[in-house]
Write a structure and sequence with these properties.
Layout: H1 2-19, H2 23-29, E1 35-41, E2 44-50, E3 56-63, H3 79-89, H4 92-95, E4 98-106, E5 109-116, E6 119-126, E7 139-143, H5 146-155
Antiparallel strand pairs: 1-2, 2-3, 3-7, 4-5, 5-6, 6-7
Length: 158
């Protein structure tokens, strides 16, 4: 019986410690996050990677995942919703001068890479006929600020 009481006490302590782990507590204890995930539409999130200056460097638009433990395949999204979100994050007048635009097709998969002076936008979709309404894969926005370029170079293998 004593072992059961001890086990129950350990369980209750663990449960109360986990219940106190809020975003505010973690931010106050450690620091501002270098990466965050935010829901921007029902079922759609963005994951933002920040530079040392806390400016967004990379933003991934994707379906919201339910768990960190379970790897979920990326479900397709509606292209018009992805376009809407990209335009909110990087409006046309803030992207800078347009540069190279590349369209890569491999079977049913199409990847569009659009270079601008301040950001590169990569989108991918499944274009097999008949077209499905939800066919857009996760999109990626990579900003070209000096802080971001340094961070991206630091991750490259030496």
């Amino acid at each position: 019986m004593r072992d059961l009481t001890l086990w129950f006490g350990v369980f209750m302590f663990s449960a109360s410690a986990a219940a106190q782990t809020t975003a505010d507590i973690l931010h106050n204890r450690y620091a501002r996050p270098t990466r965050e995930e935010m829901q921007v539409r029902p079922g759609i999130s963005i994951t933002v990677q920040y530079g040392r200056d806390l400016q967004a460097c990379e933003i991934r638009v994707h379906m919201t995942t339910r768990s960190l433990l379970i790897q979920e395949p990326d479900a397709p999204m509606l292209p018009e919703i992805v376009t809407e979100i990209i335009n909110e994050i990087a409006p046309m007048d803030e992207r800078g001068k347009p540069g190279m635009k590349m369209n890569i097709s491999a079977g049913c998969n199409v990847q569009l890479i659009e270079e601008y002076e301040r950001v590169t936008i990569t989108r991918s979709s499944h274009e097999c006929l008949p077209l499905q309404p939800a066919r857009e894969n996760p999109a990626l926005l990579v900003f070209k600020k000096p802080e971001c370029v340094e961070m991206q170079k630091a991750r490259l293998p030496k």
